[in-house]
Protein: LacI family transcriptional regulator
Amino acid sequence: MPRVTSADVARASGVSRTTVSYVLNGAAKPISATTRERVLAAARDLGYAPSAAARALRSGRSDLVLCVLPDWPIGAVLDALIEHLTEELCARGLLLLLHHGRDPRPLADLWRSVQPRVVVGLTPFSAEDERAMARAEVQVLTTGEHSGLVALQERTGALQVHHLAATGHRRIGYAAPDDDRVAGFAAQRLAGARAACAELGLPEPVALEVPLDAAAAARAVRTWHPDAAGAVSAVAAYNDDVALAVLAGLRAHGLRVPDDVAVVGVDDTALGRLADPPLTTVSQSVEVQAHHLAAQVIAALDGQAPPPRPEQVVHLVRRASA
Amino acid sequence: MPRVTSADVARASGVSRTTVSYVLNGAAKPISATTRERVLAAARDLGYAPSAAARALRSGRSDLVLCVLPDWPIGAVLDALIEHLTEELCARGLLLLLHHGRDPRPLADLWRSVQPRVVVGLTPFSAEDERAMARAEVQVLTTGEHSGLVALQERTGALQVHHLAATGHRRIGYAAPDDDRVAGFAAQRLAGARAACAELGLPEPVALEVPLDAAAAARAVRTWHPDAAGAVSAVAAYNDDVALAVLAGLRAHGLRVPDDVAVVGVDDTALGRLADPPLTTVSQSVEVQAHHLAAQVIAALDGQAPPPRPEQVVHLVRRASA
DNA sequence: CTGAAAGCGCTTACAG
DNA sequence: CTGAAAGCGCTTACAG
Structure:
């Protein structure tokens, strides 16, 4: 079962490959309606699909958008992102190519061989990689400080503290995740919380790792117990999941939320809303951000200026827990 | 900044392109150590990476694995899958190419132009597509009944009912998800639950949609209230998330779990474990299944027999809620 | 041990 | 309006 090529289509419709190409690519060249019809019919009948490889070789660029995934689990963000990106790229005949960031091979080998239209990084690239891609005129998009996707970690932490302070809390705990892979994010959010405490004249937040496990969470939470040395009246958690672990830990000690300890999360997840009490949280607007990233990719493809950063990607959603 | 080609490497090291290719691809041909060295050094210095397009054109097959995503959100499964698949494929120099199932263009155009090593479908392909791919000798993997990834929905529902029946429940509710996109799965799980009830001589399960929203869940749950017509003593939920919504709904009515109503979920999520009470659940072993799918892809690549289906991908995890 | 040559399938100047 | 020809970058028989 050999591959059907444009030569086959040409033969079947009694024209040259040139004409086939003109017809199929809607070239500016005028082609007679009868020829057009015959070529299209032949292509359809034979099930012809042009070779992406040959096309890429000829044109010097593939129909691929390379997305370099980070080393950490991105859950909801990844989901929304892939959903939007694959779909919007599809609409333009492009394909999303995923690559795992942990690959030991140099990134340069990848984009040099694949020749993608755009390279999207969910994590910043090395300065050297950035330079090399710029030199090769490869469009690059990273979700760093300026992109809006993974942005504003510090502001998130600060927002949590400001809300807790505004509701009268002074001794604040920070519940960090157990997972080393998100340690970078956690550190940035904690830094934001810390800075806010300093700014507001509050004592340093009491930071603690709280695993997503009831027993371990209960052990961790002891430190914050009203009778303990690290007593706090409120906890800012890395995200809603960690906040739910905090809730479980406090429950194990018979502490009530928000009366004994207030809790504020991040992400505005459905399960945070279903908790008892429903979580007060900072929304990072995953949907908005995923859409924005997709829009950035599209703009980059079209050589247009990047779209304006969405307003207010981070905002507080007040519910019962704080 | 024109592309660096094997010709450049050949020129820089004073040999022919043939020799460059032999060295870089570790051909069976013996090449003198000095030549080898010179070629490798030149390749490194020039930042040479072979063109994937040219290679694919030459060999007739790309280094891509095409993954067709379904129309529904797959959350944890997608996460685990992409994580494992990108990583394991990376290790073999392959790349994961994502495609959105909702694309209106025929799937055939895609695999014909891309010429992937394997096509993985997270949802079954049409019979016509299957046939065409088979004819073109394209390796296909679907996660249907036989694959283990999305398998055994009915068994999952049945397992929930068997557990509830074993703990003395006779009137059982089924909490279906709100999301149309997973309606297929939900129907299969419910069918399994229904069959189990019939087999055990229990009345039909009382099926209800329970949204992931506290107020809506509370409304839905009224039907199951001990004083209502649809009264049940236990609920099997589509998954842990829905089970948490059921918990929230029951809580709103002052009903206690498991004393007034027992609840069993599916997925064994971290947040289900953190709930109050911790959820009894059916584990579908996402990790195991993702790994199995990756193993299937690898086996298909190597032309080996598919790996044995993992034992017991579905099992009950007993905790406090049922 | 190394090189000259063909050919994968496409598109696009260039000629008619 | 249509076609013959070149060339994108690679690998691999085939000759030396």
Observations:
- Chain A has 13 helices and ten strands.
- Residues 3, 5-7, 17-18, 21-22, 25, 27, 50-51, 53-59 of chain A lie near DNA strand C (CB under 10 Å from a C1').
